[in-house]
Write a structure and sequence with these properties.
Chain B: One of its GO terms (cellular component) is RNA polymerase III complex. The complex is a heterodimer of chains A (242) and B (529). With 242 residues, chain A is of the alpha+beta class. Helices cover 38% and strands 11% of the residues of chain A. Chain A has 9 helices and 8 strands. The chains are: A alpha+beta (242), B mainly alpha (529). The structure holds iron/sulfur cluster.
């Protein structure tokens, strides 16, 4: 069975830890210099080009030493989100920093879209259940539901909720303490699902967006007597093809 | 909002369709160059004086051009001469697309005789009472003549409701020299960061031409009917313009209004129609976002406060108490079964933030500006979604909510899209003028910052809307031309494949024409509301 990243995270599975008891004693002088440079960089790691500059070791020596250090499990290659093409190394005992990984939402340099999607669905579900919910309410509710095995911080939930607002799945409101807001202090930010009756979730398709010209990539080139014109327009042909 | 490049093209297209090439040429010249004297129109269009004059008459008759007098201070120190200029009324030209909407409003509120009167006014631009009566009778079956009294009675109703008004003064005098004035205004606006949109020349001319409030909706019917048609002829705009010009040359002090008082010319008050349509748009927006109850309460509030509204683009309505709102709600058929509590809770809903209705001291007032802005944003966002995809939609919403510059990485983090992909999409939006971009260089690193500039973008979107409306109209004409045979096919020959083709054409027309109406709603949302 293959586990996708998102699923393994959800089940709280720890990622494989490498065995790091191998001794650093048997290193050559050059290997030791290189190892120290890498280790000193801690959770930031270092790019091969920078190693060469800092150690002043010749290219072939660096490349060979890297292989040795890796074989001994003293260093590991990591993906640097800032520049995926560059070879980047880090001492095994460190976990890459946020700057390197891209933060909580990244796994091995890739955005964990599946995990994010599941979280989005869970948050929407909870907000829908609560009708009007504050950030604390959503975090609590998710925790209590027990659907997720991972601990999520309020900060993380906040990021997800903000994204849902941009998706137009939910709206952000300020409580005025009346009606459905009665249990929420006045002025407190809260969230609500977009009512499904009005085609909620799916944004209304406006007048422009429902005709060919409104979404046409060629509109700037289109003129009444030009090569691209309303009379000869293929988008219209398609639109009017009953 | 301003008239954009495609706005002008679209307006000229409408005039061409309705009045032909010659008139359109004069109209285009005025739209592009601004107000001009007769002499200059002749010069620019290279038409004969007669052709230009006749075109102007048509345009004035249909409320698409207004004449005005200006003090000519140029040159000598001698007493300033007055010169007559003509200005195209861009908004009124666009209103020609909306006549069916105007008539729909009338038929909802009044009976058929009123509809007939307004229809006549829209069709002919301006009419005297006599002409209105004649028209009413010509459409009746023989023996069923409509009396003078009945017409007067109905006209009175329409005037009371402000749907019909006296025509503007033929050639009002405009105080300050506008040409030198305009740039100065602009400069002032920039330095002092004026929030109020500077009045356009078009607005100033219309302001000057508008009869005093009391006279504008004066119900005093003129006496022309008691006399012969002579006076009528005097009134015919043809003679009118010619006369006026002669008089101006010889004696600039003649008050051109005096002759006019005797016979009243009526026309439709577009402003009132647009105000009505604006109200309707607000109600529909609230209905879509909330429910029928909220919509009923809002329309009651509109009804109760409408007499206080002075201009079309009112930002907010006068404050109303719960009691007065409730009173108005139960006046309407749909509101009759609403309880006081129901009205109260609808008001709570309407005023919950972000509020469509603001509450101050237990008084409620409609925040038109906010409702309109929400609707405008929604329209633009839906274009972004369809044209650039869902991720672009998210980025656009983020930036337009932020209202300031944001850096690529930050955007990518917030919407959960990989950085490379984010940059690509932002770049595309920027290329199509939906975003502004700024480069920030810090040391060796370059950061890209992005922003939505609503003011600029809304104008751009409006221009694209005009472009789309023009294209749609051209395509409708093209399809009808292509399928002339089928259109003209007599009913009894619509069989087999012909019938199929006919049905297909019908569907096409329904789709295109309803799209035209909806697109025009969107144009109003950005241009008129
Ligand atoms: S007519 Fe066709 S090509 Fe021209 S803008 Fe419209 S959809 Fe695009």
């Amino acid at each position: 069975m293959t586990w996708t990243l998102g699923m393994s995270r959800l089940l709280g599975q720890k990622r494989k830890q490498t065995d790091s008891k191998s001794p650093a004693e048997s290193l050559t002088e050059q290997e030791r210099i290189l190892y120290n440079v890498i280790r000193n960089k801690q959770d930031m790691g270092i790019w091969t080009r920078d190693m060469k500059r800092e150690t002043s070791l010749p290219d072939n020596v660096v490349n060979k030493s890297l292989k040795v250090l890796q074989a001994k499990n003293l260093i590991k290659e990591v993906v640097n989100i800032q520049n995926k093409g560059r070879k980047h190394y880090m001492a095994t005992e460190f976990e890459p920093s946020k700057e390197i990984t891209g933060g909580t939402w990244y796994v091995e340099g890739n955005l964990d879209t599946e995990f994010i999607q599941i979280l989005k669905e869970q948050c929407t579900k909870q907000i829908y259940k609560l009708k009007v919910a504050t950030l604390e309410g959503i975090t609590d509710s998710i925790k209590r539901s027990g659907v997720l095995n991972v601990e999520l911080t309020k900060q993380q939930i906040d990021e997800i909720v903000k994204a849902l607002v941009l998706d137009n799945e939910i709206i952000e409101l300020k409580s005025n303490g009346m009606g459905e807001f009665a249990s929420i202090p006045v002025g407190k930010i809260c969230y609500k699902c977009i009512s499904k009756g009005s085609g909620g979730g799916e944004p209304k398709i406006g007048a422009m967006a429902s005709i060919p010209c409104g979404v046409c990539p060629r509109i700037h080139q289109c003129t009444p007597d030009g090569i691209i014109s309303p009379q000869t327009c293929v988008y219209y042909n398609k639109w009017l093809d009953f | 909002m301003v008239k954009t490049q495609y706005g002008i093209k679209y307006a000229v297209h409408l005039i061409t369709n309705h009045f032909g090439n010659l008139v359109a040429k004069v109209c285009e010249c005025l739209l592009r160059k601004g107000p001009l004297t007769l002499h200059n129109i002749v010069r620019y269009t290279e038409l004969t004086q007669m052709q230009v004059k006749n075109s102007l008459l048509v345009l004035i008759q249909h409320n698409c051009v207004q004449a005005f007098r200006l003090a000519d201070t140029g040159g000598s120190q001698s007493a300033p001469k007055q010169i007559t200029q003509y200005i195209a009324l861009f908004d009124n030209i666009l209103h020609r697309m909306r006549f069916s909407k105007f008539l729909a409003i009338i038929s909802q509120e009044f009976d058929t005789l009123c509809v007939g009167i307004v229809e006549g006014l829209l069709q002919h631009g301006r009419l005297t009472l006599r002409q209105i009566v004649e028209r009413a009778n010509s459409s009746q079956k023989e023996g069923n003549s409509v009396g003078m009294g009945a017409v007067q009675e109905n006209l009175r109703k329409l005037v009371m409701a402000r749907y019909v008004e006296h025509c503007p003064t033929a050639e009002p005098f405009l105080e300050s020299p506008t040409e030198d004035d305009a740039p100065a205004r602009k400069r002032g606006a920039k330095s002092s960061k004026m929030v109020i949109e500077p009045e356009t020349l078009e607005q100033r001319v219309m302001e000057a031409a508008r009869p005093m409030e009391a006279k504008r909706f004066s119900l005093e019917m003129d006496t022309e009917l008691n006399e012969d048609g002579e006076k009528d002829q005097n009134k015919s705009p043809d003679k009118h313009v010619g006369d006026k010009r002669k008089r101006d040359a010889s004696d600039p002090n003649v008050d051109s209004d005096t002759t006019e008082d005797q016979v009243v010319l009526w026309h439709a008050n577009f402003e009132e129609f647009i105000r009505r349509l604006r109200h309707k748009a607000c109600i529909e927006n609230v209905r879509a976002r909330m429910d029928d109850g909220a919509a009923i309460v809002l329309s009651a509030m509109l009804e109760a406060s409408k007499t206080e509204e002075k201009k079309v683009r009112t930002a907010s309505s006068v404050p109303l108490s719960v009691n007065s709102i409730y009173e108005e709600v139960i006046k309407s058929e749909k509101g009759r079964n609403m309880t006081f509590d129901h009205v109260r809770s609808a008001l709570v809903q309407l005023s919950s933030p972000p509020p469509f209705v603001t509450v101050i001291d237990e008084s409620y007032s409609i925040d038109f500006k906010h409702i309109i802005e929400v609707a405008q944003s929604e329209e633009v966002e839906s274009i972004v979604l369809k044209r650039f995809g869902r991720d672009a939609y998210r980025m656009f919403r983020l930036l337009s909510k932020a209202g300031r510059l944001l850096e690529t990485d930050k955007i990518s983090d917030k919407i959960f899209v990989e950085k490379k992909e984010t940059t690509k999409i932002l770049y595309k939006l920027w290329q199509d003028d939906y975003l502004l971009m700024e480069k920030l260089v810090v040391g060796t690193a370059t950061f890209l910052l992005w922003k939505v500039n609503k003011h600029v973008l809304w104008e751009h979107v409006l221009d694209e809307m005009f472009h789309a409306a023009l294209n749609l109209s051209l395509r409708v004409a093209y399809e009808l031309e292509q399928q002339k045979e089928i259109v003209n096919l007599p009913t009894d020959r619509r069989e087999g494949p012909m019938k199929e083709k006919y049905e297909k054409l019908k569907k096409m027309r329904v789709l295109m024409e309803s799209s035209q109406m909806k697109l025009d709603d969107a144009i109003m949302l950005f241009h008129d509301f």
